[in-house]
Amino acid sequence: MTPLPPVPAVPTATYRLQLQPQFPFGAARAAVPYLAALGVSHLHLSPVLEAVPGSAHGYDVVDPARVREELGGEAGLRSLAHTAREHGLGLVVDIVPNHMAASPRHNRALWEVLREGPASPYARWFDIDWEAQDGQLLLPVLGRRLGEETGDLTVDGDVLRYHEQVFPLREGTESLPLPQLLDAQWYRPVWWRLARTELNYRRFFSISELIGVRVEDPEVFAATHGTLLRLLDEGLIHGLRVDHPDGLADPDAYLGRLYEAASGRWTVVEKILAPGERLPAGWPVAGTTGYDALRQVDGVFTDAAGADELLDHYRRFAAPPDDLGGRWGPTVRRAAHEVITQELATETDRLTRVVSRLCATSPDPALRDHAPWALRTALRELLVRLEVYRPYASVDAATVVTEEAAAEARAVFTVPEEAHAVDVVRDLVLGRLGDGPGHAEFRVRFAQTASALRAKSVEDRALYRYVPLLSADEVGGDPGDPAVSPEGFHAHCARVQRDRPATGTVLSTHDTKRSADVRAAISVLTQCPGRWAEVLAEVTRSGARTPDPQLVWAAWQTFFGLGCTDEARLRSALLKHVREAGLHTTWTERDPGYEEAVADFAAGGPCGAPGRLVRGFRDALAPHIRANVLGAALVQLTMPGVPDVYQGTEGEYRALVDPDNRGPFAPQEAASDKAALTAAALRLRRRRPELFGASADYTPLMAEGPAAAHCLAFVRSARVLTAVTRLSLRLAEAGGWHDTSLVLPGGRWADVLAPDREFEGRIRLADLFTRLPVALLERIDDAH
């Protein structure tokens, strides 16, 4: 038997495939030859374990012991792995440790808990507060109040049915009248709206359909990770992407256990780093999934002065209050206050109960006599002031829950003596007031609540309210300071190469609000903010029915970025935008009249006659959009880290927020400059991995001349050179490159895309960028 090609322990590049019933393992297997030729070393698969039937994403796992049958089961995964190995490719798999689907009909472990209660051997799997709700697990599944739904709740043998949902009955309760039967269960079906305030299980953010899993328990870890760890041991899987570690009780301990169980295989974590935040040094992982790199790449193609001017135009056009979209910081704070008092009220109540119990039972008199309302207020005011997702056991919590935040929180209280509750809460978080089981539980729940709050308030609310520059409204971004200088970019890359050279980098993912190509187009507006304001003034003079001005501003930028008239896609994205923003309508309290106005505006505005003016404006900027698209792609593929290419993004890929960007994979058939550039960079990485890996180096290269600021260039290991054009519209307005030049390191260099072109010594950038606004050079006077 011919031995299979080896798979590198650290990927040179990964390619993300969104598995779903419409694109199962067999379809992925058919795509392997194409992806191998593209130049990646590993396929990056979305979750592969058994999920809710029909799930298009797989993050709603129902059975972690089985590979998903709808995708082809374990046999299908093995077939895919074998074909991949035949082509020299490995597999990286997305794992979901934080939650499972709260669907008893499909989740047999949860079914047993509902049937047997806390005595079930599966009860330890789920993060349930059995002391609340009179010992019943509250299930927010009813469409109306219980009294209005009794006719739809029926007993069928040993199960309770509610439309298509099925729940087990506690043994011996089948013949009871319905009211007594419901009281006798270990669960209580209730109106779905009670989830905000009454829920007694931890969930994923505020999604009640996903129940938190206690992987901190060694037995639960073994049970929920056993199948994937077995496939790792067998060599079918070669790396892991960990979904949402911030939701776990102890990410430090979990990642340490995973590292040992996975024998140190390449692992990245979906950790969203706030500006200036670093991944905990002790985490035994290669790095993040790459949102920090996305922020750097997008930022270096954003004009700082233009972004400021665009913000001024936005404020004049939309006139939003400071805390409702006018300024980034106040907008985040206002959103956090809303989320913690509304969507996360049940999490806040549970945390308040824990801290109240600690204070009431403490032997320290200083902790006594704190009213629950004061402790709740202190918790809320500290949580909304966190500027990162959460504290960790391995990081000084005082750097997260700062004294400055505490001082602001104290100022909320009108009675100074009651403000002492802030100090109590902060000292408990910092571990200054004991370290018993109750203290540890408080710190864990505080951190888990903090991460849910940050995600919901920033990712799912503030990013849809603060909209002067939509390309900056991205996970891990910094909309309040969207531009990154070349010096800042080089400093980031040097730090990554030194500390986490095998970390992930991304530009588009299944979770990005807009694909990289859409963001690249929108960021061009920072180079012509005045012209954009004029165009917007023209199209809004049409007299068409419009919703609020903030949405109008965001809608036209969305249309500009998408660059095509697809009313259904645009309407869907705009409706999601306004529901997430929560200013006029929400997912749970919809305003039909407002939503109708949004839909009408999409049809009659961007997708109607006024849209032609914006399309013409976009067409005129096409060369500069192209420069951004190609520049961002090349930088991501050659900067420090392991690039992940989201399905389809090797070619032109204009997608809006999910589900628009989560369709089945389709190979890129049409040749394009971006596709050629992507393949060339990926193949170079695969052919010369030592130039990009842990032992490689990263050297900034500075251009010389009047337009030097418009060139971003760096060298990898003295053998590969990346040079791209940044802010090309500003460059063109200044008259072009003139005599700006780049001094190449010693030796002869060939253009990877056009090997007949060779360079040496000092070269004029006008000559380097004659065909494309980017260049990828490889030194050719060495032994390779």
Automatic annotation (TrEMBL):
It comes from the Bacteria. GO terms for biological process: alpha-glucan catabolic process; trehalose biosynthetic process. One of its GO terms (molecular function) is (1,4)-alpha-D-glucan 1-alpha-D-glucosylmutase activity. Pfam families: Alpha-amylase. Residues 11-683 form the Glycosyl hydrolase family 13 catalytic domain. This is Alpha-amylase.
